[in-house]
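Sample log: diguanylate cyclase.
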Amino acid sequence: MPNSHFSDAEIAAALEACAREPVHIPGAIQPAGCLVSLDTDLERVRQVSANSEAFLGISVADALAAEPREVLGDELLDLLDTELVKQDSSACVLTAQREVRGERRRFHAVAYHSGDAIVVELEHLMCLEGHRLLDTVNNWLVEVGQVDDIDTLLDVLTRRVQELTGHERVMVYRFDERWNGQVIAETRLPEAESFLDHHFPASDIPAQVRRLYDINRVRSIPDASAPAVPLVPPCGPGEAAPLDMSRGVLRAVAPIHQEYLFNMGVGASLSIAMHEEGRLWGLLACHGLTPRPLEADLRDALCALTQIAMPRMMLLRARADTQLLHDIHDSNEILSDERGRLLGPDGLVQRHGTQWLKLLGASGIALVTGEESSGIGALPTEENLVAMAEWLSRNQRHNILWHTQALATTPLAPWQEGDLCGLLAVALPTGSAHWLMLFRHEQRQSRRWAGKPEDTPMIRDGQLILTPRRSFSQWQDEVRGQSRAWRDIECRAAGDLAKNLAVLTSNHEIAQLNERLHGANRKLQSLAYSDSLTGIWNRYRMEQAIDAELNAAERHDRPFAVLLFDIDHFKHFNDTQGHEAGDEVLVTLCSVLQNLLRPTDNLGRWGGEEFLVLASDCDPVGGMHLAERLRRSTEELDLGKLGRVTISIGVAAWRPGESRKTLVARADQAMYRAKEGGRNRVEQAPDSAAKAFRP
């Protein structure tokens, strides 16, 4: 054994050190781009990456001594000043041009707050086919909607991503309840080894890395062997710790991960987190056998493809689960005989038990009523069944299901017989000690691992560390003494069956399940257009509506206006009252203001606490009156213990020939004049006759 030279305590200490590795603060970036760290006022350069001259044409020393505008250029700094004022916790993606050595260069920028710094990560933007990527995403929306099973969905996802990136291997990697991973879908080129159905231990993606995927869903490593580019100085002014780059894309690769990728034969890697109901479900993992540059726009498009696939997968699972419940309820329709009388326990099980075994994937089913039992299939003796039921009645709450896939490890082990390792037990809601029990045979499983699932301890720099395994050749182990695990939906179906066995309730629950399914379909259809918190339109849908209104205005010379507003001092409100209270304010305010609008007006969330109203067939004066009505209603809104809030509104009426961008920009400027003028007021954009409304 490789661990034989070290004690258990030493190995445990090495594991703990590995789990504490500060992967989010490496003090360096990958050479695919450069980094500039500014103070929050955008007035001083705090840190730059050592490759600033190659990307920006300015040396490190000059960059640290220069004004931010000299380093980043006017266009990008103005964008930062506009976007980051929202104080959003997420990163914002920007595109800007800057002159470098006499040549105009386009940059893709990711900007985010990190402590007392604003971090700007820059990559060259070479792709001029943004429309092609948008077409790809739109086509994917249609394609996903036509896929009717999860396996096909994941196979198509890996295939489309491989076609777009050229990576030799693209996989979907799913986590189990212990955070071990299994490759469940794969598209690969002939030169890449297959990892399909292979398992990976949880230590391959440790807890601190998994937490990063909750913060930042994309991890791109275009060149796994490239040396890291340090930040200068290593820490910001007056700070002891390196810069936190959790929200960025250029964060340097940890040495242990570089070694892991090298041992796997991977030269480039891209991972995109797949979340289900807020929990990390798995990863879309792309491997290039050699370094492979990846365009920032393409990377963003791949993230969009993955995020679109997840709701569809959840919907397909809900549909399959609903079908199981539907079948269980269908079986309950015949639980009465021709004369409408309930059959006895033995008659019920003998008549319908085979169907229930098939639906729930069980080997045996028993109905234990007091000292008697009725059953079909592979079962323990009646004496042992009754003993199990008695223990469950003494130790288990009747409204909670009890299940295991390894009976020998539970208090019920004395009554286990043969290879019946799995048990799902449900108390019938009759007030008596009656139990529905389903059993499963042992399922011996040979698991294929991508290399033996253990790290190798070694002494490096005088300390015991765990190094990544050097071989990823297939290694097998055999799992014994366990049945197939009981799925949540199977537990639920058994619970429903137990209720019907006890009281013969009607089939109304299936109607509720169908409604949930229809709701899931409606949610999927509105996903691209609705804000998840408030339920109003999101920015993408508002942009579409503004464009449509622009076309109608040009064609029919019909006036319209946009009202851009945000909540005054909302960051302070969140800091003092908490984000849950802030969310409550946003939801309540949107509901109130929505009711003040005409049917032809539309309200949407523009970003953070910033909202936009599109007022159709509305001239400048009408826009100002509408804005004042919204301002006054907000001021009068009583939020109970949360107090009151106010809003500042900028109004811009459309001018012939004007684009969406300039129209919204004028409204934005007007809104900031309202803030600068004291807040809780309305300001009209220039070139309008109406004047400011003041409370």
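Observation: The radius of gyration is 31 Å.
Observation: The chain is about 40% helix and 25% strand.
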